[in-house]
Amino acid sequence: MKHSHHPFIRPLAWVAACLALPLGLLAAQPEETHPPAAHAAYAPWNENGRIAHQQLLEKARSGQIDLYFLGDSITRRWGATDYPQFLAHWQETFFGWNAANFGWGSDSTHHMLWRIQHGELDGVNPKVIVILAGTNNIGKGDHPGRGIDAAEGVEALVTACQEKAPQATIILTAIFPRNDSPKSNAQIDRANARIEQLADGEKVRWININDQIADENGQLFEGMTLDQLHLSLKGYQVWARNLVPLLTELLGPPADEDHAPAPTGDPSVASPH
């Protein structure tokens, strides 16, 4: 039952609580208290991101998408027109599974959540959704709470994806180590420990390739990244080797034809490089 909002009527419990407070605090009390807000959704952080969102909306309504990738720049670059070498490997790896890439650079889980809430998964109904998210929540340095924020963000993404595509199986990928900021790895480890708990082994799966791309201290092996953060082709090859058996289990062998929408790229990039 909702509380009355008449200025002179308050529930007895509210009055009793107020009487127990110092007089100076009464004016500061809200009429009602509410639980903490859910993981917040943030709109694209610049005009280029807004343009990209429109491109991704068009992609979501084009072709056939059975395999949907959601993530930040690490995901985006794999299937983007402005990274032709990575795109060639993407097409070689996922051809026949109708795969589409919905990664966007610098996105935190908050931004991805906004994109999902604003149409990028509406009506798509993929069979599998691969999520790699959270490194941009953590950023550089060992900042308390950022690992928790990343994990809660991935949980919010799982919930949003399940609401939009209830038949899909979700594959969660562990956040990769950051050697551009080794202090970040403590928060990454905390986040991954919590994200892994979201997997039920059936509708939500979990893969962690970190021991294949980095040593036990989180030091990335030679050649795995371009800049100590973003994967190189060699890094994507490792990710692919771990995904393909699971995708074959969930989707069956790749078909001889592919009906995925055309790949997109960074709108600010005038020509491939």
For the biggest sheet, the summary is:
5 strands, parallel
Taking strands numbered 1, 2, ... along the chain, how are they ordered across the largest sheet? 2-1-3-4-5
At the third CATH level, what is the topology name?
Rossmann fold
Question: What is the domain tally?
Answer: 1
User: What pattern of helices and strands is seen along the backbone?
Assistant: HHEHHEHEHHEHEHH
Low-confidence spans: pLDDT under 50, at least 5 residues? 1-36
Gross CATH architecture: 3-Layer(aba) Sandwich
Quick structural summary:
With 273 residues, this protein is α/β, with parallel strands linked by helices.
Which terms would index this structure?
five-stranded parallel sheet, alpha/beta, disordered N terminus, 273 residues, globular, Rossmann fold
Question: In words, what does this structure look like?
Answer:
This protein is of the alpha/beta class. It has a single domain, classed as Rossmann fold (3-Layer(aba) Sandwich). It contains ten helices and five strands; from the N terminus they run ααβααβαβααβαβαα. A five-stranded parallel sheet has the order 2-1-3-4-5, with helices on both faces. Helix 8 links the parallel strand 4 and strand 5. Helix 4 runs parallel beside helix 10 and helix 7 runs parallel beside helix 8. The protein is globular.
